[in-house]
Structures are given as structure tokens and as C-alpha cells.
Write a structure and sequence with these properties.
GO terms for molecular function: ATP binding; dihydrofolate synthase activity; metal ion binding; tetrahydrofolylpolyglutamate synthase activity. By secondary structure, the protein is α/β, with parallel strands linked by helices. Helix content is 41%, strand content 16%. A seven-stranded mixed β-sheet has the order 3-2-4-1-5-6-7, with helices on both faces. Strands 11-12-17-13-14-16-15 form a seven-stranded mixed β-sheet, sandwiched between helices. Strands 8-9-10 form a three-stranded antiparallel β-sheet, covered by helices on one side. Helix 20 links the parallel strand 13 and strand 14 (529-532).
């Protein structure tokens, strides 16, 4: 008789009968959800014969309530005493059993504490057949969750050890030397530029690999290859992992456990591209450039380096100044390889990049060259699909000769910032053409026009809005979380809804510049409603900006900009949504003050609340609800839509 495998990391003697019974009856995917939850409850992996101390007994009433035990996680997590396992695990079994039957991508219940929600969503949304791979990766150091150490992205003693990455790749047979590559760094615009360029090359018929980060719904999004650019199939990723797992195990041991999640996944991407025999790979740097794990590509394989923009994101990790960030990102420039720069840059920042290029004897192409003209002419929506019509004209006669005319280009990526990314991608394609890559003007146009990215100024279709219970509501989602990206989003709102009423739903990580972000959005079309909420952020609750903190910041921004506002407190705590609607309607007969309110709940519920508040303030005026502040906001909305 085959014995039932127990949840990983838990000793069977410590499991109560309800959990074991539940575990035996659920599917493999449900087992993963259950194991994810159970593995977080460290206190219940203790000796079952021990007794709680008096300090723990003061909280013991919480053990009788499933909700209570989840709410007391902070006290339990740091408690050093041994506790009675059986009663706690029985309660936990009652708490989690309903979640074992959630469908893939179902909105996580508010019963689950926020520090657990991201892990549970991951367990629910990822492909079941990737379970072993995801469990393996989960054990590695993940700086996307924990935060990047100070100076880690600089080319200094504090920087990441690229030697570790090179040794791993050498054990894998140096797969990164088996294909040509374009390496893209920059504060903003890397992913969009990489996708534009990948699609241009695919239109020409090339087999293209593309490596980007982060992802929204599944880690498979980070690796795309083939002629359609779809995410790597789960089965392919699983097979590649098992093919090299022995080498990974050996490498982790030899490196004393120092290999990171990003390093291992990057190595897997390179190995997969080598196996697939791609013609070219478009590689997005993760952090900075000089010490990023992707910066192992030599000049013999590098067809072009691209630097899209320089901004103050990850400031501490990249040296503390715009100048140090520019130096870190210019570390991807290799000897004799052309460099395409986006911008516009401040003169002294561009000077840093050009100095590095001069040192490397690398020709420079700037998308802001006087010989390049781009114009956003107008925008529109057809059958719920948004677009903008642009002109791009390029005629450069400097280091490299580039020439193309693209009138009336129909871009599905919205905003002037995306037009700049399209120009940068076009310059890079022309640069490749100058190296005898066959790329026609028609392929450049077709590649630009087919490009779409989830969560970049994305309007939900009516079917998508209906899927989350908001039929008839115009919803715009955007992962903006910096001052520059907030400006880009404000421009899109102004362009697509020049006369419409706006409600903003904002949730952010704690380490962002909240005030600069708020001021940029408030400098655009003035919103009728600003609803501040919270979303699970990679790294846990310590990285979540509380709704009340964000509300204080937005009030300060409104005061600084002279915007009349009304602080309407917190929905569901002493006031119902109807109370807020009533206050909103009664605030003014002519020009009601901007309503600023907190809401604790899922992003979907927050969008619904913002929509209702907005409708209570306007008559038949066109309106849009904008959800922004983090890619985690976008991920939460898309998970609800797609599943």
C-alpha cells in the first residue's frame, strides 16, 4: 500500500487528525496550498508534550477561534515557549480547510493575515506541476522580498559577487555564450523596451528569447521564447529544472548557500535559451547593471547595450545618488559594442554614460538625437481597446547611420513615455540592422504595433470589469510606483479622459517616495476621490505602507498644492459606505472637495468602494477608476479577472 506523503516540513506526530484527514482528501494543487499555510506556523512544529507559559495562556482564548489564531500570529511567531500543539493544530485545521477548496486564483479571504496572502496567492496561481521547482526556489535568498542591501548594486566591495554567477554558469556549460544578446538596463522602461524589441525581431522571423522581471501572475512570465513570445510552458521549465538540479545542488553547496533566487533563475533562463537555440536573447537587468546577475554577457555575444532612463529608485542599493546610479547602469557597456540611450537625461548624467562608452570605444545612439522626431498625435478606444496614433521619424548620421519613417503608427502602449520606449526600441533595431541583422521597416512597424504589456496603463475590457463585479465601470490599472511613472500615468489619464471624473485607488510599498508620487498624480486631472488601501507586498507586512500613512501623505500633498479636500476617515470603522456617500454629496453644491478616504480590504473591494463613491458625486459624467501604486495592485486585479 502506498503511504500518503505528509506536508513538507512538518512531523506527522505533531499533526492533528483533522489536518491529516484533510490532507489525504485534497488534490496535489490543494496540498500545495495547505502546505504553504502550515509551513508558516512555526509554533506548531514544537514538541507536543510541552505546556504554554502564563504569558501565552493570557492569549489562549484566541486558540478557540480560527480568526483569533490567525490574528495572533505576531505574538506566536516570536514566542520562545513550547505550546500545546494538538489544540492549536486542530484550530488551524478548521481555519485552513475551507481554503483547500479555493479555485485557482480566487480572491484570498480576509481571514488570512497579510503576511501570508502573497504566499497563498502564489500557491494558488502557479502551475501545480511546478510545485517541486517553486519549493526549491522558495528556499533561496530572495532580495525582491527582503530588500536589497545597501550598495549591493554598485561596482564596489559592497556589490553583489558576479564571480558566483560566473562559476554557476561555468558548471552549466556557459550557456550564455551560445547566443547573441541585447542587454537592457534603466530605472524605468526596461520591460516595455525589451518587449517592443522582442516583437520587432519576431516579426522578422527570428527565434527570440526574452528575460524580464518581475512577474505579475506566474514566474513563467519572466522567460519567453519562440516565435509568439508566450511565457515558457510549465512543463518545459520543470524539465529544465530537473535536468540541472544536480548542478544547482552542487553549486549551492560550493557557494555556501549564497546563491540567490535571481541568480539561479537567471542561469535557468540562459540555459533554456541555449537549449532552445534562440537566434538572439533580449535580457533585462534586474538591479543596476554593473553587479547584476545578468551582467555576465561578454562583448563577443553582446549585439547592443541599452540604457533607457536614470531615476532615483533603489537609491541606497545603487550608491545613494543619480550619479552613482548612472555609473552602475553604464556597467553593462562592453568594449566595442554599440550603446543605445533613451532619456532624456540631465546633461551631467548623460556625460557619465558617454564617458563610459568612450572608455569602452563603444558608439552611442541617443533616442533624443536632433535627427529623431516623435509625435503623439491623438488617442482613442475601439471596442474597449485603447490606442494612440504617433509618428516616428529617424535620420541619424553620426556614429552609426540610422534611418526610418513610421507615420501614423498605432501603438497599444499608451503615453508619451511609451512612445519614447518605442523610439528606443526602434533605434536598437536599426542598430542591429547595421550589424547585418535582416530587419525590415515593415517588421519594425508590425512589432511596435502588436506590443501590449499587462499592467502598463491598461484599461480593462467590459468583460474583464464584469468579471470582478464592476460591469459598466471604466477601470485603468497601472503599476506606477515612482515619481516619473506617476507623471506618465497622469498624462495617460489626461489624454484618455480629458473631461472625465477620476477616482484613484492607491496602495504602495513602504520604501517608495509616497509624497512625490502623490504630488505628480495630483498635478494631473484632479481626482474626485482618492481611496488609500493596502496590498500584500513581496517581503511581508514590514514593506506594506499602511492606508492611514498614505492618507496622511496625500493630505499633505493636497495642502502643498492648494487642493481643497475632505478627510472622510476610514470606511467600515464607525462609518459605512453610505455615510461616506452622504458626506460626499453634501460637501458642496458646485465644486465638491476632493474626497480622501481609507479602505481596508482587497483591491477589488477597494475599486468597488471607490466606484460607488465616485458615482455618488457625479451625474452622467464619464468617469474612470484608476488602481495604481504597485505592480502588486495590478497583480491582485488581474488575478481576480483571469481566474
Amino acid at each position: 500500500m502506498r503511504r500518503e506523503k505528509k506536508p513538507a516540513g512538518l512531523i506527522s506526530s505533531q499533526l492533528s487528525k483533522p489536518i491529516l484527514d484533510s490532507y489525504k482528501t485534497v488534490s496535489a494543487a490543494q496540498k500545495r496550498i495547505m502546505t504553504t499555510l502550515l509551513s508558516c506556523y512555526k509554533p506548531f512544529r514544537l514538541n507536543p508534550i510541552c505546556h504554554p507559559s502564563p504569558s501565552f495562556r493570557s492569549h489562549s482564548h484566541h486558540l478557540h477561534s480560527p480568526r483569533g489564531i490567525l490574528e495572533r500570529e505576531d505574538e506566536l511567531e516570536g514566542h520562545q515557549d513550547k505550546v500545546r500543539v494538538k489544540r492549536g493544530m486542530q484550530c488551524l485545521a478548521r481555519s485552513i480547510f475551507p481554503f483547500c477548496h479555493l479555485r485557482n486564483g480566487t480572491e484570498v479571504s480576509r481571514l488570512i493575515p497579510r503576511f501570508l496572502q502573497s504566499r497563498l496567492r502564489s500557491a494558488m496561481s502557479e502551475d501545480p506541476e511546478l510545485g517541486d521547482f517553486l519549493d526549491y526556489m522558495e528556499k533561496l535568498k530572495n532580495y525582491e522580498r527582503s530588500g536589497v542591501p545597501i550598495g549591493a548594486g554598485t561596482d564596489s566591495d559592497d556589490g553583489f559577487d558576479l564571480g558566483r554567477m560566473r562559476r554557476l554558469l561555468q558548471r552549466l556549460g556557459n550557456p550564455h555564450t551560445q547566443f547573441k544578446a541585447v542587454h537592457i538596463a534603466g530605472t524605468k522602461g526596461k520591460g516595455s523596451t525589451a518587449t517592443f524589441l522582442s516583437n520587432i525581431l519576431r516579426e522578422e522571423g527570428y527565434l527570440v528569447g526574452c528575460y524580464t522581471s518581475p512577474h505579475l501572475l506566474t514566474i513563467r512570465e519572466r522567460i519567453s521564447f519562440g516565435r509568439n513570445g508566450d511565457p515558457v510552458p510549465a512543463e518545459v521549465l520543470k524539465n529544465v529544472f530537473h535536468q540541472v538540479k544536480g548542478i544547482l545542488d552542487q553549486s549551492i553547496e560550493l557557494e555556501n548557500g549564497a546563491l540567490t533566487h535571481f541568480e539561479v533563475f537567471t542561469a535557468l533562463a540562459f540555459f533554456l535559451f541555449s537549449q532552445a537555440k534562440v537566434d538572439i536573447a533580449i535580457i533585462e537587468a534586474g538591479l543596476g547593471g554593473a553587479r547584476d546577475a545578468t551582467n555576465v554577457i561578454c562583448n563577443t555575444e553582446l549585439s547592443a547595450a541599452v540604457i533607457t532612463s536614470i531615476g532615483e529608485e533603489h537609491l541606497a542599493a545603487l550608491g545613494g545618488s543619480l550619479e552613482s546610479i548612472a555609473m552602475a547602469k553604464s556597467g553593462i557597456i562592453k568594449h566595442g559594442c554599440p550603446v543605445v540611450i533613451g532619456g532624456p537625461f540631465e546633461p551631467h548624467i548623460e556625460h557619465i554614460i558617454r564617458d563610459r562608452a568612450s572608455l569602452m570605444k563603444s558608439p552611442v545612439i541617443s533616442s533624443c538625437d536632433p535627427g529623431i522626431r516623435s509625435v503623439l498625435k491623438f488617442s482613442g478606444r475601439v471596442n474597449g481597446n485603447s490606442y494612440q496614433i504617433c509618428d516616428i521619424f529617424i535620420k541619424v548620421q553620426k556614429d552609426l547611420q540610422l534611418s526610418i519613417d513610421l507615420p501614423n503608427l498605432k501603438l497599444l502602449m499608451l503615453g508619451n513615455h511609451q512612445l519614447r520606449n518605442a523610439v528606443t526600441a526602434t533605434c536598437t533595431a536599426l542598430c542591429l540592422h547595421g550589424q547585418e541583422w535582416a530587419i525590415s521597416d515593415e517588421s519594425i512597424r508590425a512589432g511596435l504595433e502588436r506590443t501590449q504589456l499587462l499592467g502598463r496603463s491598461q484599461f480593462l475590457t467590459q468583460d474583464e470589469a464584469s468579471a470582478i463585479g464592476l460591469s459598466g465601470t471604466s477601470i485603468l490599472i497601472d503599476g506606477a510606483h515612482t515619481e516619473a511613472s506617476a507623471k506618465g500615468l497622469a498624462d495617460v489619464i489626461r489624454m484618455m479622459h480629458p473631461e472625465g471624473a477620476v477616482a484613484l485607488v492607491v496602495a504602495m510599498a513602504s520604501d517608495k517616495d509616497h509624497l512625490a508620487f502623490a504630488k505628480q498624480l495630483l498635478s494631473g486631472p484632479r481626482p474626485e476621490v482618492v481611496l488609500l488601501t493596502e496590498v500584500t507586498i513581496a517581503g511581508g507586512k514590514s514593506r506594506i505602507a499602511s492606508a492611514s500613512t498614505l492618507k496622511d501623505v496625500w493630505i499633505r500633498a493636497a495642502l502643498d498644492l492648494g487642493i481643497d479636500f475632505m478627510d472622510s476617515g476610514l470606511i467600515d470603522h464607525g462609518k459605512t459606505l453610505e455615510d461616506h456617500k452622504s458626506e460626499s454629496r453634501g460637501s458642496s453644491d458646485h465644486s465638491p472637495a476632493m474626497l480622501v478616504v481609507c479602505h481596508i480590504g482587497s483591491v477589488g473591494d477597494s475599486i468597488k468602494a471607490a466606484s460607488q463613491l465616485l458615482q455618488s458625486r457625479i451625474d452622467d459624467k464619464p468617469s474612470v477608476v484608476v488602481a495604481t501604486g504597485s505592480l502588486h495592485v495590478v497583480s491582485s486585479v488581474l488575478a481576480a479577472v483571469h481566474h
